[in-house]
């Protein structure tokens, strides 16, 4: 080994030791944030304190500058740390409010098999929850919901919308008719890659497997490919499994690089989606609703139909405005057997235990033909802390 290689190995060893120390410090910090959560439970304090978070970031940015670290680097790093702290505190608060939900084994139904986007979202959501995870891959949304309704599964993870292809109507239609409750949500990045099982290049491809939603999200890329046969599959994992089985240089699948690795597939092109910031929102449903402590930022999802008169929907939405409730989603779906009539799905920021929310629901019940609460649940979208004084820090 040359002197250069010896020196490089020594530097890498030193870096590895520092990485280990960083992990230990992060674990110690997480334990302290858990103690903070216990204190907030007893004192009935909100999880987030935006002013303190901003002051903390300003202090850290100044300290980092003194050590040769850029404000951008420090801010990005501590955004991740703060997000993790917030989500852990929310989880502990939710556990205290729902002690019966701590299961030794969480049986979770989702679309597809290992490697599908629903599988990756399931892994992400339940990584923070106590108990082991039992994965139950399904071939359709109907099958997923049926497994939870029949108590074969405890939870289901369902994709509800995508930033590129929009709402997933089949899931909305199922929510209207099920007795299950939404108990959680998460947003997961969707990073489509062209995956192959045999050495090849794009010019050799003749057949492409993917879920129909994926084809929709990558329509611009498909148009560039030109004359290629697209074959829809029930899930992203089914597409990757097909490519693995065929091992044909003329065949590819579209899915995540992480999922493809589980099937021995190699990405030959990435970032295929029409929108480069491509995310899917998933909901978690269960047979039993959850209690959401008021300290936790929460959402409520409801479905309603209005009376058939001009301005009926506007009047209903004005109820939300008058109660200072922010609506984050409005989706309409046709009512089977009632031509030209719509069912409206609404997401709002708010907790069912809030006075304004209770007042709004009471008013809505008096002016709608049908109203059903689909769930009140913690929101896992942690808005990054803004540092208003960032420009001053650069001076």
UniProtKB/TrEMBL annotation:
Isomerase as UniProt keyword: yes
Coiled coil: 1-42
Superkingdom of source: Bacteria
GO molecular function: chorismate mutase activity; prephenate dehydratase activity
Cross-referenced CDD domains: ACT_CM-PDT (cd04905), PBP2_Ct-PDT_like (cd13631)
Function: Catalyzes the Claisen rearrangement of chorismate to prephenate and the decarboxylation/dehydration of prephenate to phenylpyruvate.
GO BP, one annotated term: L-phenylalanine biosynthetic process
Catalyzed chemical reaction(s): chorismate = prephenate; prephenate + H(+) = 3-phenylpyruvate + CO2 + H2O
Gene3D superfamilies listed in its UniProt record: 3.30.70.260, Chorismate mutase, Periplasmic binding protein-like II
Species in which this protein is naturally found: Bowmanella dokdonensis
One GO cellular component term noted in the UniProt record for this chain: cytoplasm
EC number assigned by the record: 4.2.1.51, 5.4.99.5
Domain ACT: 301-378
Protein name (record): Bifunctional chorismate mutase/prephenate dehydratase
Metabolic or biological pathway, per its Swiss-Prot or TrEMBL entry: Metabolic intermediate biosynthesis; prephenate biosynthesis; prephenate from chorismate: step 1/1; Amino-acid biosynthesis; L-phenylalanine biosynthesis; phenylpyruvate from prephenate: step 1/1
InterPro entries referenced in this protein's UniProt entry, alphabetically: ACT-like_dom_sf (IPR045865), ACT_dom (IPR002912), Chor_mutase/pphenate_deHydtase (IPR008242), Chorismate_II_sf (IPR036263), CM_dom_sf (IPR036979), CM_II_prokaryot (IPR002701), CM_P_1 (IPR010952), Preph_deHydtase (IPR001086)
Domain Chorismate mutase intervals: 2-93
Lineage: Bacteria, Pseudomonadati, Pseudomonadota, Gammaproteobacteria, Alteromonadales
